[in-house]
Design a protein that fits this description.
The protein is about 65% helix and about 0% strand. The chain contains 14 helices and no strands.
Length: about 270
């Protein structure tokens, strides 16, 4: 515990106070971008190396990481300019700080998913509310690749202990990214296959198109086979009346499934 206090000393003298979201936000804003980046990088290493020895400090670490990730303006990859590095708080530096904070947050949630310390926190309010603007940006499509925030959402989707905190904002981010991100599509498939899909109906159009687009390439990869299972699940939900699809979405779904039947039939014929 003394090591943790020493590590935070230059950042904030009262480590216990950092458990409060507003205190952590003030501490992040009052320190230089380089110091915040360095602290987030160090915290990630500490979570990995010390594990449950720092469990009681998880709320303070979470507060700092969320404050560091949420405090920056939303910056897309294509907006970054190498010359920005000369500026004290350039978009490039903002991005690095945010990514470091989100990576630490992902590791923290993964390590302490079942911890009583985290269960006692209102994680929906502490995580998604400060990051809501960034989640909204992802729901509009985000950038290519796998944004760090999407990996935080994925950890919660995969954890039985954390899945209940995956709210509409998280689902919208996954659905918005799945047409361009195989990582997001994998998580959508996971939610469909384990039948935790109530929040996905609103985004059925995007999901059906993304699943169909992946299946148009074949069923050779594990992701493509999972997409087929997920699409079959969507078909069952629609047939049972659990999901109400528009006429165009229903046509898209039927077209995707019929195309797979034709492919299977051709394979048997040969």
């Amino acid at each position: 515990d003394e090591f943790i206090r020493l590590m935070f000393r230059a950042f904030c003298e009262d480590v216990d106070a950092l458990e409060d979201a507003e205190t952590a936000k003030k501490a992040v804003s009052s320190n230089t971008p380089a110091r915040v980046l360095g602290l987030c990088t160090l915290l990630r290493a500490v979570v990995a190396k010390l594990g449950f020895k720092i469990e009681k400090r998880a709320p303070a670490i979470l507060s700092v990481c969320v404050a560091a990730a949420a405090g920056d303006s939303i910056v897309e990859d294509e907006e970054l300019d190498e010359d920005d590095d000369d500026q004290d708080d350039s978009p490039a530096k903002q991005k690095r700080r945010r990514v470091a904070a989100l990576q630490c947050l992902r590791d923290l949630l993964e390590r302490f998913a079942a911890s009583q310390v985290l269960r006692e926190m209102d994680l929906v309010a502490r995580l998604w509310t400060p990051l809501s603007d960034h989640l909204a940006a992802l729901s509009r499509g985000g950038a290519d690749g796998t944004p760090a925030l999407l990996k935080v959402v994925a950890v919660c989707c995969r954890s039985d202990a954390l899945r209940s905190i995956v709210d509409e904002r998280c689902v919208a981010a996954l659905a918005g990214c799945c047409p361009r991100s195989s990582f997001a599509l994998e998580e959508v498939c996971h939610l469909l296959i384990i039948e935790d899909d109530a929040k996905l109906e609103t985004h059925s159009s995007l999901i059906i198109k993304a699943l169909g687009g992946q299946l148009s390439k074949g069923t050779h990869t594990q992701l493509q086979r999972r997409c087929l299972s997920a699409l079959a699940r969507v078909g069952r939900l629609a047939a049972d009346g659990a999901w109400r699809l528009t006429e165009s979405d229903a046509d898209e779904l039927i077209g995707c499934l019929c195309a797979r039947l034709k492919t299977v039939g051709s394979a048997h014929d040969t």
